[in-house]
Amino acid sequence: MKQIVQNYKEGSLKIEDVPEPALKSGGVLVQSYNSLISAGTEKMKVDDSKRSYLGMAKARPDKVKQVMETLKQHGPLTTYRKVMNRLDSLTPLGYSLAGKVIGVAKGVSDFRIGDMVACGGGELANHAEINWVPVNLCCKIPKVSQGVKGDDKGYLPPEQAAFATVGAIAMQGVRQADVKVGESVAVIGLGLVGLLSCFILKAAGCNVMGVDIDPAKVDMALKIGVDVPGAIGDVDVEQMAMSFSDGYGLDAVLITTGTKSNEPIITAGRIARDRATIVDVGINKMDIPWQLYYSKELVLKQSRSYGPGRYDPNYEMNGQDYPIGYVRWTEKRNMLSFLNLMAMGQIDVTPLITHQFNFSKASEAYRLMEGKGGAFYVGIILNYDISEENLRQSRINTIQIKTVKEQGGANIGMIGAGNFARTMLLPYLKRTGVNLSAIATATGISCKDTARKFDFCKCTTDYTELLKDDSINTIMIATRHNLHGKLVIESLKAGKNVYTEKPLCLKEAELNKIVSFYASIPLPSTSRPILMVGFNRRFAPLIKVMKDFFKNRKEPMVMYYRINAGYKEKNDWYQDKDIGGGRIIGEVCHFIDTYQYVTGALPVSVFAQTIKTDNQATTLEDNVIITLQFSDGSTGSIFYLANGDPQFSKEYIEIFCENKVAVMDNFTKLTTMAKGKKRVKKSVLQDKGHKIEMKALIESVKDGTASPISFESIYATTLTSFKIHESIETKQMVEIQMV
After folding, report:
1. What mean pLDDT is predicted for residues 183-194?
2. Is there a contact between 135 and 28 (Cβ–Cβ < 8 Å)?
3. Which of 58, 101, 152, 349 is the least buried, fewest Cβ under 10 Å from its Cβ?
4. DSSP calls for 5-63
5. What pTM, to 2 d.p., does this model score?
């Protein structure tokens, strides 16, 4: 299929051939009929891509701050890779469309194939021929009322339904204003969202005044029925507002502009009546004049995009609706409300459609927004080829990019391509000289982009293509954690070597299945496929030196491992027990494995405690102290903490044994001391072992040797992470008994 993408590094925008998206659970596949270009949001993105790196930094100081924090924690090399990965990526555009359902995931009951729907969501309802959209961001298009022109089946035409998402943004702003019938409301900024806000306010029985710096937009406002439109600079806005409101001032003001100036905030305060409500729907400088707002006791509100549910992954991606008795207007219900207003004839968006382009000519639409055409525009609609023949040609889930290299050695198929895989695995993997045969991801754009950047032979949105490909002998799994166990078992059954990022799996039942299947493979063990988990820290150079420092020891070790993990929001996918598994299963497994490597012993018992807090923003496992006993008598404590200063170093290890001490600080410094002699080994760049890990994996595949990490050790680490949870729940020490 075809999709509009942009690249910040190149400053380019084009239509790219990508595989169709996978039909994931909780959503539907939608064939696009029409999509709406958001002139404000998308123009800002396109303009950003034209800036120099310095210009981008000046425009997004929040992103610069994030980069500096990453630099302090992970060093220059990792930071550079992460930044360049973001810049040199194919980025989707669009978030508001209408089309036909062509695929329904198992368990979805609200939609059927053939339903006409309106869809929303950034990086979901893209300018693409086919999109996967979750159910809470997808609405059935209603039939029109008598006297309203519909399509040939009596439904709201898709080119109008494509306005639903942007309409929901305007709807949420109006709801935040909490206006009543007969009240006087001003809209500052008469772009697409501003004009749609005027439509909704008129439908709600309000008297509407609209102002903008562009006289052409003011003329458009007059055509759609705004009571008093005015061009800033041509009229005295304050005087106009007083006359319009009988001298009282406006009951509410909606600010729908996007500017780095606080002038709209000042203007809104001046034209508002005493104790009025001002709603910021756009992106404006929030430098609020205290005296003005205080003297009138004004209420200033932010409007959060489409409405309640926005930015909540449980609502948007997992389909968990809010009870209507408690949350009347969610983002989906706002979309439906706007669709119904159009279907009843109370809102007619057709005057706002100033331009329509065939999807194949989309570049002309963006040139228009850049001002190269010099024409006035508001609503820009893209029209797609909806013929059966084009749909058939679009429904391709695998694209062959180049001829497959000669077989032999390590032939890699990768499933998943998130930021970690792109920055910490693939750069090192590519240097080993392996054949990167195929990449599989759920979205076509991610799949094609990763194949482009790392020279894969083909890309697909159907991971089973990799399992069926006899030329691929090694599967690498870098998906979200909930898929690891399932993909490991399927890959092993397909006879592939398997590398999966940690954790191995999320449930003990999954672990037992893996153990059972792996044990059923006939000996000798060297004939078994390699199974390796991404416990990279054991490959870190300073950890190896630390282990060697205590070689030939006769006594057990006493170990302390402190991880300044940093805060993660409770709605982060990592914290979700069903998707990320939580921080113990998802990350503490790293440190259990490091202890196993250093001691050369297996854990035999564990005791864990969490802090007691009333802070509802944290989870129990955000701050946990774990004590492990090992089979050689060694003990190790893991202090996993989220309540520290994020600027402080992340990982710190101390080991005491046989009158020796070793201290490792954040993989950049190792201090050892024995017989009064102190030695310090430093590393200019932080090295957590990813490069050596990838090299070790590929050498094992090429040589046909056993996994660099024994299956017994992987099993023990995974089982121990589950037992930590058991210890927290029972408040007792738990023995680790391996099958």
Report:
1. 97
2. yes
3. 152
4. EEETTTTEEEEEE-PPPP--TTEEEEEEEEEEE-HHHHHHHHHHHTS-HHHHHHH-HHH
5. 0.89
